[in-house]
Structure formats: C-alpha cells, structure tokens
Design a protein that fits this description.
single chain, 483 residues, alpha/beta, Aldehyde Dehydrogenase, Chain A, domain 1, Aldehyde Dehydrogenase, Chain A, domain 2, 2 domains, seven-stranded mixed beta sheet, six-stranded mixed beta sheet, 39% helix, binds nicotinamide-adenine-dinucleotide
Length: 483
C-alpha cells in the first residue's frame, strides 16, 4: 500500500530520511496516513548543527520579527483548524470535535507567545552597596531539543515550539512516531510563516536514535520532554552529566475526590469527562476516583448509567463520544490491566472490546469498583479509558488516598464544602488542583506542571519563560543614581 512520503525539515529544506515508516489510522488500520522519514544519527547531527548555526542570528532578531512569525503561524493554524483537526483525529484517534479544539488551542498558543515575545522584560533593583544599581535580564538559552508524546500531537509541540522561538532559541523537534503527520503539518506551517532556515528543524525517527542523541549531544543546550516517567528518567540520565537544562513533564495517576456533599450530577460529569474523554489518554485524566461512603453507591450507579450512553467508534464519525485507543500495544495493555484488576478482586464494569465496521482499536470505557490501595491497577500509569473507584470513610481518608501516589500532576475534588475544598487545595500533593470540574484540561497562559515524579524542572505554558531563558544579573556603577 504505497503512501505519500513526508521528509524531515533541516536547515530550511525538506530532506529525505534514511528510511520511511508508514502511519496507520487507529480507527481504521486500512487507512494509511502517510510514510514518514526516519532520521539516522547522521541526519540528527545535521539538524543539531543547523540549529547551532542559526542560533546567533535568531537570538538577536527584534521582538517584532518573532511576534510576526509566531502570530502568522497562529493565524495559519486557526484558518486551517478543520483540516488539521481532521488529520489529528485520523492519525491519533481523538474525536473530530476534540481534535478541532486541540488545533484551536495550538493556534491560540502561538498567538499568546507572539505577545510574550514583545513583553519580555527585566528588572532594575537598588543595590545594597552604594553607587551600584542591579539589572536582572533574560537571554535566550541556545539550541533546545523538544521531545514530544503522541497524545496531544498539536498542542504539546505548540506549547514547546512557540515559547522556544518567542524567547530567541533555535530548536530540533522530535515528535512521537505515532503522530508524525501532525508534526509535519505544524512544521510546514512554521516554514510558511517565515521561520529563518535552521531555526526550526523537524527530525522524525525513533526515541532510541533521535531522542537519545538530542539528550547526549553537547551541542544541544537544553531538552524539554513530555512523555512517560521511564523515558524521562532515561533522558535525565543522559542530560544531567552534561548539566543541560531540563524540563520533564511525565505521567499522572490523578485523583478525583468525590465527597458525600457533592452535587452528584456535577461529579459524574467531571469524572466521565476527566476519565474517558480523549479515550482517557491524557496525562491529566482522572484515573483514581476516591469516593466517600455516603455517596459511593449512588455515584457508581450514576456513573454506569452515564457511561452506558457513551458512543465509542471511528473518530471521524460525528456522533462518537470516544475514539479508539491509539494502537494495538496500548489496547493490549488496557485489557491486561483489566484482567489484573479482576484477578486482584476488583469488579470490572465495561471495558469490552468492540468489533466495528473498520479495523480499529475500540473498547468501551471501564470502571473498576472495589479497588484496594495496594492493587496494581490503582498504582500504575495505564493511560487508557479506565477509571477505578477507591472507597474512603471520610474526607481525611480521601485526602490520604489522593496523596498515596508517587505521581502528582493534577488532582480534583467535588464538594459543596468551602472548607474541604480549601483544605484540599492546600494539602493535596499535586501541581494543579481542580474544584468541581474535570482534572483534565488546562489554560495555556498559566503555569502547567506537577510534583513528585510527574515533573522535573521549570514548568510549562504560563511559566515557559523560566525554562526557555537564562537569567543574568548585572551590577552597574551608575554614579549613585538611586532607582
Ligand atoms: P514515551 O515516553 O514513550 O515517548 C515520548 C517521546 O520520547 C517520544 O517522542 C519517544 O519517541 C521519545 N523517546 C523514547 N525513548 C527515548 C529515549 N531513550 N531518549 C529520548 N527520547 C525517547 O511516551 P508516549 O507513549 O509517547 O506518551 C504517553 C506518556 O506521556 C504517558 O505516560 C503520559 O502520562 C505522558 N504525558 C505527559 C504529559 C505531561 O505534560 N505531564 C503530557 C502528555 C503525555
């Protein structure tokens, strides 16, 4: 089945890869998205060299020029939102509505960071020493390696690429091989928006070759990564001996606490959306539902009723609520975890495999009831449409269960009690807290990140400046003029 070939983008040119890899639609394995270049180590080295050569000039262009390119890219993305959303849904398996919304988000991110390029400022402080003033300024970081996962194939690259460029860095972008089509389309738009040659380089290929080289190369100053904890640890092991600046955004086993006094309808909507939308394949998904005894049985019954109404199917079909799982490996992993939950004594509702018209990876969302804190299903990052319920005696036990995890990305609580909501906000061990809404979903202009093993280094989005710039403190003998 021959497909269209898509090349890597290095030093302002489309370059043939050492080999090509076909990408198939997870809703329909008979639908080939395209054949995508796979770089070898030599080509990855060329991309790094191109980014190095482009850095000095790009780091000095005016903020207006950076604004124009980023704003232009944002406009192109927004103008093509429907076509790009179609590609995203076809390649990654989000429903069309979710995919179009993600593309819209990517466009807004470019617009936001266009403005940030103009707003970058420093500080002037008085010195404790007479005659001196102190200036704190920010400079571009250098060449950054951006390594991204498959589950937000437009939004995550956008929230790394846009700030990298806004703050004057050149970059090598290595997307997940499962979503090369989205990555290629995004870089094609940046090319059209006028990014100078060498400033943005797209290197599709494996993590073991391209990702590893970005981490190991002394010519790459910093690496920003989103993906699994295991890969993040591997990247850290390669980067830290070189003292590279690192930004790691990794997994979540995010708790959603539902207290006796919660509005049942609000809680069920938050949990269904947080756990199952985007097929549960979100790092901020609500995968551990911690429910207090007084509402537990009513909550389970309402969840099952709501879940029964969810339509699972081909991501491009308009009435579908939940698209396919991303690939056969992930589908098998999901099923293995459900079998494990049964073996450990959990009661599994849903989770059946679906045999639909097209050859896709379809399963119904699953709710596992009667889970005990020690069970593997409650402790490991599954990354699928599977939520489990832990029963808690009261708020105090619910908070303890919420914090009983090595991960700490996002956390939520559904309650009408202001005091419980306030206490939870302060004491839950997570980077992001949501009250009476789904744990998944975030705003692009505010800080995004986690605690414990979920994140490492400066946060993303609203705090991207801290990663993508270097701080400099200057002491200026200004003749004693006080600030
Ligand atoms: P993954 O860790 O398998 O891969 C992520 C990226 O790392 C891919 O581009 C991959 O090719 C690359 N990679 C693999 N091995 C590498 C190596 N040795 N060196 C350098 N790069 C390497 O993750 P995935 O399966 O693509 O994505 C799912 C995971 O991502 C989940 O665990 C999810 O929780 C996490 N995630 C986290 C966030 C966040 O912001 N916290 C966002 C999205 C996804």
């Amino acid at each position: 089945m021959p497909g269209m070939r898509f090349d890597n983008y290095i030093d302002g040119r489309w370059c043939e890869g050492a080999e090509y890899r076909g990408n198939l639609n997870p809703s329909d394995q008979d639908d080939l998205i395209g054949d995508y270049a796979q770089a070898d180590a030599a080509q990855t080295g060329e991309a790094i060299a191109a980014a190095r050569a482009a850095f000095p000039a790009w780091s000095q262009v005016s903020p207006q020029q950076r604004f124009d390119i980023l704003d232009g890219a944002g406009s192109l993305i927004l103008a093509r939102r429907d076509a790009l959303g179609w590609l995203l849904a076809r390649e990654e398996g989000k429903t069309l509505a979710e995919a179009v919304a993600e593309v819209g988000r990517a466009g807004q991110i470019f617009k936001f960071f266009a403005g940030e390029a103009l707003r970058l400022h420093g500080e002037i402080l008085g010195s404790v020493r007479p005659g001196l003033n102190v200036e704190v300024t920010r400079e571009p970081l250098g060449v950054v390696g951006l390594i991204t996962p498959w589950n937000f194939p437009m939004a995550i690259p956008a929230w790394k690429i846009a700030p990298a460029l806004a703050y004057g860095n050149s970059l090598v972008f290595k997307p997940s091989g499962r979503v090369s089509g989205c990555a290629w389309a995004l870089v094609d738009i940046l090319n059209e928006a006028g990014v100078p040659k060498g400033v943005v380089n797209l290197v599709m290929g494996t993590g073991a070759v391209v990702g590893q080289l970005l981490s190991e190369s002394p010519l790459v100053d910093a690496v920003s990564f989103s993906g699994s904890v295991q890969t993040g640890q591997r990247i850290a092991a390669a980067c830290l001996p070189l003292r590279k600046k690192l930004q790691l955004e990794m997994g979540g086993r995010n708790p959603m606490v539902v207290l006796d006094d919660a509005d049942l309808e609000v809680a069920v909507e938050a949990c269904v959306s947080g756990a199952f939308h985007a097929t549960g394949q979100r790092c901020t998904a609500s995968s551990r539902l911690i429910v207090t005894a007084g509402i537990h049985d009513r909550f389970v019954a309402a969840m099952l009723e709501r879940m029964a109404a969810l339509h699972v199917g081909h991501a491009l079909t308009p009435e579908v609520d939940i698209g396919p799982v991303v690939d056969a490996t992930q589908l098998r992993k999901n099923q293995d975890y459900l079998a494990m939950a049964r073996a450990e004594g959990g009661l599994v509702h849903g989770g059946e495999l679906l045999d639909l018209e097209t050859r896709g990876f379809f399963m119904r969302p699953a709710l596992v009831v009667g889970v005990e804190p020690h069970m593997r299903i409650g402790r490991e990052d599954i990354f699928g449409p599977i939520a489990l319920i832990l029963r808690a005696r009261d708020y105090a036990e619910a908070l303890a269960l919420a914090n009983d995890s090595e991960l700490g990305l996002s956390a939520g609580i559904c309650t009408r009690s202001l005091s419980h909501a306030s206490h939870f906000k302060r004491h839950v061990q997570a980077g992001m807290v949501v009250i009476n809404a789904a744990t998944a979903g975030s705003d692009y202009h505010v800080p995004f990140g986690g605690r414990k093993h979920s994140s490492y280094g400066p946060w993303e989005q609203g705090h991207a400046r801290d990663f993508f710039t270097l701080v400099k403190t200057t002491y200026l003998n200004g003749g004693g003029v006080p600030v």
